[in-house]
Specification:
The chain is of the alpha/beta class and 352 residues long. 47% of the residues lie in helices and 23% in strands.
């Protein structure tokens, strides 16, 4: 059963809306103002939001702005409901990313049709992008709003890379959006002493190399294959058209960027305040998640010590000492580049 959040300060209108939606088979949560609506959206996990524009404390535009900044809520279909029908309000609402705009008094059939259409469209976009090469094709095909996208999206090149091959290097012109079909890739910086600092790890079903395309700059880091890879190359022009001219594609991509930014911020906090023991434990957990997502016991990962040290933000010698301690503690088993994590939960429980 789909869940709908109704944010409306007028009691009679709110109750009327909730009754109509409940009779139509929806699970309903409601809020009497914008502040409570934001809380309900972040905790209630709704599939769609209907929100009044003119409300005390926080109006509908403010609600949408706040929800757009949250990775958890910025992809939820959002319909404005208001008694005002001026064109400026329509433009402002759509400019902020609203999916639809219905004026009061509203027709029940019109409202239900708008809700059904937005839910169906959202479900199709989500199901299309299932983090696989086939899913990539379905996702972009679903996101196309114009025929010219079809021509730009045809015949994308797939390249194969061996472990330790460069995908791109710092200073090169950015020409492609990369989609990792198989394998693993690391992105990293090199400091003045020649030491690597890994900034991102990518596994199957993930995009990388997008920031220079958005900013129209050269690459500021290096991307190298950790294992043998197959990578699909999406032309810069194709990506730009989808990102800036199609709201569905843009919303999904922005949500992905927001999630990555949140993860990067958390990683910086951990590097600043965690003990070396905790940093190495987190590095092992990160690699396990990339290579064996979903497993919690007897997880086998293959990683060279230099890469693991770069992820942990510590010296290789320190990393080796920590791995030896973990082995003595019965947390891991080591066989060359192969590390078996006996319990993810025990590693995660290591204190800061």
């Amino acid at each position: 059963m789909k869940k709908i959040l109704v944010i409306e300060d007028n009691y009679e209108v709110r109750e009327n809306l909730c009754e109509i939606l409940e009779l139509s088979g929806y699970d309903i949560i409601s809020a009497p103002n914008g502040v409570e609506g934001v809380k309900a959206a972040t905790t209630g996990d709704p599939d769609l939001i209907i929100c009044d524009v003119m409300m005390p404390e926080l109006d509908g535009f403010g609600v949408l702005k706040i929800l757009n900044k949250n990775p958890k809520t910025n992809g939820i279909p959002f319909i404005f409901l208001t008694a005002k029908a001026e064109k400026t309000d329509f433009r402002k609402g759509m400019g902020l990313g609203a999916d639809d705009y219905i004026t009061k008094p509203f027709d029940d059939t019109e409202l239900l049709e708008a809700i059904e259409m937005r839910l169906q469209r959202s479900a199709k976009i989500k199901s299309a992008f299932d983090q696989s090469d086939e899913g990539l094709h379905r996702f972009i095909n679903e996101a196309k709003a114009h025929e010219e996208f079809q021509k730009l999206s045809e015949n994308r090149e797939v390249r194969k890379y061996q472990a330790k091959d460069f995908i791109y290097e710092e200073g090169q012109n950015a020409r492609w959006l990369y989609f990792l079909v198989t394998g693993q890739v690391k992105c990293y910086h090199i400091n003045e002493f020649g030491k690597e600092l890994i900034t991102n790890l990518y596994s199957e079903g993930e995009f990388f190399g997008y920031f220079p395309l958005i900013q129209e700059t050269r690459y500021s880091d290096f991307a190298k294959a950790i294992s043998d890879c197959e990578i699909r190359l999406i032309p810069k022009e194709d990506f730009s058209l989808l990102l800036f001219n199609n709201r569905d594609f843009g919303a999904q991509f922005i949500k992905m960027l927001a999630n990555r930014a949140e993860n990067a911020e958390q990683k910086l906090i951990e590097l600043a305040y965690s003990s070396v023991r905790k940093k190495v434990a987190n590095a092992l957990i990160t690699m396990a998640d990339k290579q064996c997502s979903g497993q919690s016991e007897n997880v086998e990962i293959k990683v060279v010590r230099d890469d693991l040290a770069a992820i942990a933000g510590t010296a290789k010698e320190t990393l080796i000492r920590m791995l030896s301690e973990f082995k003595s503690d019965g947390l891991i088993e080591v066989d060359g580049t192969l590390i078996k994590i006996l319990s993810i939960d025990q590693l995660d429980a290591i204190p800061q």
